[in-house]
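Entry 14. Structure prediction run on the chain below.
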Amino acid sequence: MTRRTTAWVVLGVWLVALGWLVKREFLVPAPEPLTLAALSLPPGANYYALTLAGQQVGFASTTIDTLPDTLRVTDVIVLDLPVMGTRQRTDGLTEAILTRELSLRSFTASLRATGTRYAARGVVSGDTLLTVEMDLGTGRDTLRIHLEGPIVLPSVVPLTVAFGGRLEIGRSVTLRLFDPAVLAQRPTTFRVVAESTFVFPDSAQYDSTLRRFVPATYDTVQAWAVVTEDTRGLGATTWIDARGNVVHASTPVGFHMARSAFELAYENFRQQPPEIVASLSSDIIQQTAIGAGVQLDPANLRRLTVRLGGAPLAGYDLPGGRQQLTGDTLTVTRETPSRRGGWRLGRAPDSLAQWLAAEPLVQSTDTRIAAQARQVISGTRDPRTAAERLTQWVYGNLRKEITVSIPSALDVLARRSGDCNEHTVLYVAMARAVGLPARTAAGVVYLDGRFFYHAWPEVYLDDTWVAVDPTFGQFPADAAHLRFTIGGLARQMELIPLIGRLTIDVLDQQS
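Output returned:
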């Protein structure tokens, strides 16, 4: 498989689309007015068309149901993404149960794609504990997360906007959001930056000549633009009306989300021939590639120096190990680990305990993963030899294919297929299972004149972290791997603000 296996971006797009709904939450109203408003909240639904390069590639909806003593907010999103000449179907759903005071009581979330599925159910105990049960396809896992205070799901955000006070340009607030797709909570600051008027179709009629629905009547609404103030935002600008409903949203990569009538958003999308999406010239992988301006020979590249621009660099894991950052100039030097390390497997420094422990989606203590890892490294206790054997085993035993999923090591071991995310999560789990400290890195990698978004592991050898790439069978990884983040899927999602903005100028290359 070539380096085009950057399909984690596809998953990122799904999260961005879900994240558009996050942008609607930026006010924290007093509980009394909010409660009174919630008591009179009517049920209803809004529908949205998702487009890429002018072609509809998805459908989304938000539905509010009023129950006897609770509220249920359901968000659905369906995407048919053009990926390397194929159509990748992804279905996502979140459902939140709220008290009449709009406090989160529980939620469910799911993601389905070809051959994969992910589901999670969370229950909040007070404001201090969130218990999440995950169905990973090949097994279940339970995670208990300590909360520092009330959390908010993207799907329940509209209620606080609708009944929290006036929308005013310049108003901002910081909230603690929990994303069930990446199992992470984070404080996020939102700011209202503009006000305008939008016209959108609110009913449709069928045109027998065109054989599709067309707008029948229109509605005009006043809307406000909401963006994130911090550099780690999702990169979207979202326009919402006075009741917190999304009117329009867009991302730097070229996706748009527009409110529409049900028939226009859903029925036209449902009746669209699959080959239309597959034939789109705006392939999502190619769309997110970054031009390098020069030709490189990564296989023989010992050192690469580039200038990074177009986006804020603060907060990313750019310096450290084989990477040196001076201002906006990054130099990457390929490692040359010695044949023998200074320690043996199972005796790693105590400071590396974090990178030896099991965690959600990285089930390094599972007997199936541990047994396979021990078989692969059989006969050696040398960290370097073990790391190299694991690299070649994962490279040789996983089919290379675009995968839209939330990667679980146990699921990957069973299916034996996937893209860079699946290769990386399985490698990290197997390495930890045999006492080799390992972690996930993500950033960009060079191929044929452009840099593509990518993920790969790092292992601890010779008192330093060494990049390896089981997707490409590289040990160590070439110097054209530019790391931006260290950590799991939640950290990888922090790359999304770079999409469509990051520029890379090659300054020097040494073989």
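The two ends are 24 Å apart (CA to CA).
Filed with the rest of this week's runs.
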